[in-house]
Amino acid sequence: MKPNFGVVVFPGSNCDHDAYYTVKKIFGLDVNFLWHKDDDLQKSDVIILPGGFSYGDYLRTGSIARFSPIMKSVIDFANNGGVVIGICNGFQILLEAGLLPGVMLKNKSLQFVCKDVYLSVANRNTLFTTDVPADKVLKIPIAHGEGNYFADDETLNELSENKQIVFKYSSADGEVNENDNPNGSLLNIAGIVNKNGNVLGMMPHPERCCNPVLGKTDGAYIFNSIIHNFLVEV
Amino acid sequence: MFKATVIIRRRPSILDPQGVAVEKGAVLLGLTNVKETRIGKYIEFTVDADDKSTAEKEVNEYCSKLLANPIMEDYEFNLEKV
């Protein structure tokens, strides 16, 4: 079946329209905006928590958004196996909501970093990455001030053992090293999934690079993976 | 009614890049004895409760679920009857 998408809109979200546009115009699928004060997911099969500065990033990034009425529904949806992708601020919200482990610290440089980065795909067997060709290094933009992923050693070991680390910052050749780490993230982590593999959080913005007119399309591998997994399910 | 004052500290094991950057300013000021600068948060609010234990319970919940993230921060608070 074709999946329906829902894009959550928090006060301060600013990538919600990019995500909506990409799903609707590039992939031609049904998509609804989900207002943070509502609790109805409008029969969405895939929920996108978009980038931005929800609630002004006050206190800690994502810390207030997680208490929105819509998040209670999103948490129930995710715990029942629903597909959720949190991008940038959406990733930060997933961490604060406890749907993914760890926290985000300020970038090591203390600077807001906005540029294209390369991602080595550490796990191609998630429903978000099955369409990425073997050895393909993705080029996707980042734009954040707090993307420095931190978790204790036990959590990091668990993430590695369960293959929950999906994307790592790398060189254009896919080599994971400290020089190509834009924010100080432990293990160069750019994206992780939960244990069940239905919730993805990633700092890079795949919704910003799906339109050939913009000259970059590597984000389409991620959307295509999700969509194909739904089509195959029928 | 109680007045609560909360101090939130980043856990000692976690690098505080903001503290490191600010300390570079101390060096520029010529304050060579300043070491281990770490930046936390100070938060104050009132709790409309009749007794201290009820107030403490609410402050603990506020701190542990929202004001501090226990993965990277510790908190302590003081309650004063007003």
Main sheet summary of chain A: 9 strands, mixed
Percentage of β-strand residues of chain A: 15-25%
Order of neighbouring strands in the sheet with most strands of chain B: 2-1-3
Q: So what's the overall shape of chain B?
A: elongated
In the CATH hierarchy, the third-tier topology of chain A is known as Rossmann fold
CATH domain fold name of chain B: Mth169, Chain: A
CATH class label of chain A: Alpha Beta
**Integer tally of domains of chain A:** 1
Q: Which structural class should the secondary elements of chain A be placed in?
A: alpha/beta
Helix count of chain B?
2
Secondary-structure topology with pairs:
The complex is a heterodimer of chains A (234) and B (82).
Chain A lengths: L4 E5 L6 H11 L4 E5 L10 E4 L19 H11 L3 E5 L1 H8 L6 E3 L7 E9 L16 E7 L3 E3 L2 H9 L3 E6 L18 E5 L5 E4 L16 H15 L1
Parallel strand pairs in A: 1-2, 1-3, 3-4, 4-11
Antiparallel strand pairs in A: 5-8, 6-7, 6-9, 9-10, 10-11
Chain B lengths: L1 E9 L6 H12 L12 E7 L4 H16 L5 E9 L1
Antiparallel strand pairs in B: 1-2, 1-3
What descriptive keywords fit this protein?
heterodimer, A: 234 residues, alpha/beta, Rossmann fold, 9-stranded mixed beta sheet, two-stranded antiparallel ribbon, 5 helices, 23% helix, globular, B: 82 residues, alpha+beta, Mth169, Chain: A, 3-stranded antiparallel beta sheet, 2 helices
